[in-house]
């Protein structure tokens, strides 16, 4: 598996300076940018549509990692890929047609991810693991940035890492929620390959410096 990846989430960015802030973290070494999409139904908040994904795509050479926290994601997957998403993650809880949603992403030409909320049993991720490019363990209840990391996510990451080892999957394990300089290393040690960080990076006055500090926390 590659070195731990930090994926700054633009949910916490200043949208009036979006291109500038994305460029700052890319200059600091970021290779992924995470975009949280919320519909006000699956989660109690609204965020971005395909146009913002397109703006991020135009602003960076980084992998654009889109996390759909929306109902019926199979209806919208193609729109986000067409807008510039390289990877699209859907929630198992958001549709009764999980496989159809995943295939919609794959057929549109993007990498495929599947996410689970904190108390959703891991069985669905375990069953699908080798069919995925990305398995996302939520370490907060989805819907809002700035929440505190839920430590139970560490055990869930450890379990998925063991399933991956036993099955020989190449799936990346991602964690999203409450990642900062204090929680990044424990999440890495539990098995996370990709750490999504929003307020810890874009909530800082200097996102590039904040990204560098967080990178040191997982490599130092």
Overview of the molecule:
The longest helix is centred in the last third of the chain and has 16 residues. The protein has nine helices and eight strands. The radius of gyration is 16 Å and the shape is globular. With 220 residues, it is of the alpha/beta class. Helix content is 38%, strand content 20%. Strands 1-8-7-6-5-4-3-2 form an eight-stranded parallel β-sheet. Helix 1 crosses helix 2 and helix 2 runs parallel beside helix 3. The protein has a single domain, classed as Aldolase class I (TIM Barrel, Alpha-Beta Barrel), CATH 3.20.20.70.
Strands of the largest sheet, in order across it? 1-8-7-6-5-4-3-2
How many beta strands in the DSSP annotation?
A: 8
Radius of gyration from the alpha-carbon trace, in angstroms: 16 Å
Topology order in helix (H) and strand (E) letters:
EHEHEHEHEHEHEHEHH
Please state roughly what percent of the residues sit in beta strands, choosing from under 5%, 5-15%, 15-25%, 25-35%, 35-45% or over 45%.
15-25%
| CATH architecture label | Alpha-Beta Barrel
What is the topology?
Layout: E1 5-8, H1 18-27, E2 32-38, H2 50-59, E3 63-69, H3 77-83, E4 87-91, H4 98-108, E5 111-116, H5 123-128, E6 134-138, H6 152-167, E7 172-176, H7 184-190, E8 194-197, H8 199-202, H9 207-219
Parallel strand pairs: 1-8, 2-3, 3-4, 4-5, 5-6, 6-7, 7-8
Helix pairs in contact: 1-2, 1-9, 2-3, 3-4
Summary keywords:
alpha/beta, 8 strands, TIM Barrel, 9 helices, 8-stranded parallel sheet, single chain
């Amino acid at each position: 598996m590659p070195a731990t990846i930090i994926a700054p989430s633009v949910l916490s960015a200043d949208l009036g300076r979006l291109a500038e802030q994305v460029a700052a973290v890319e200059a600091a070494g970021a290779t992924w940018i995470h975009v949280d999409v919320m519909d006000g139904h699956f989660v109690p908040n609204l965020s971005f549509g395909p146009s913002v994904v397109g703006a991020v795509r135009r602003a960076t050479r980084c992998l654009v990692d889109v996390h759909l926290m929306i109902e019926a994601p199979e209806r919208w997957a193609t729109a986000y890929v067409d807008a510039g998403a390289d990877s699209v993650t859907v929630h198992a809880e958001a549709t009764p047609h999980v496989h159809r949603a995943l295939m919609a992403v794959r057929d549109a030409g993007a990498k495929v991810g599947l996410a689970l909320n904190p108390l959703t049993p891991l069985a669905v991720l375990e069953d699908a693991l080798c069919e995925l490019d990305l398995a996302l363990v939520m370490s907060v209840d989805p819907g809002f940035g700035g929440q505190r990391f839920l430590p139970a996510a560490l055990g869930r990451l450890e379990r998925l890492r063991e399933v991956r080892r036993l099955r020989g999957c190449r799936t990346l394990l991602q964690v999203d929620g409450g990642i900062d300089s204090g929680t990044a290393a424990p999440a890495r040690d539990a098995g996370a390959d990709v750490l999504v960080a929003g307020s810890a990076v874009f909530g800082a006055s200097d996102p590039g410096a904040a990204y560098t500090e967080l990178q040191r926390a997982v490599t130092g």
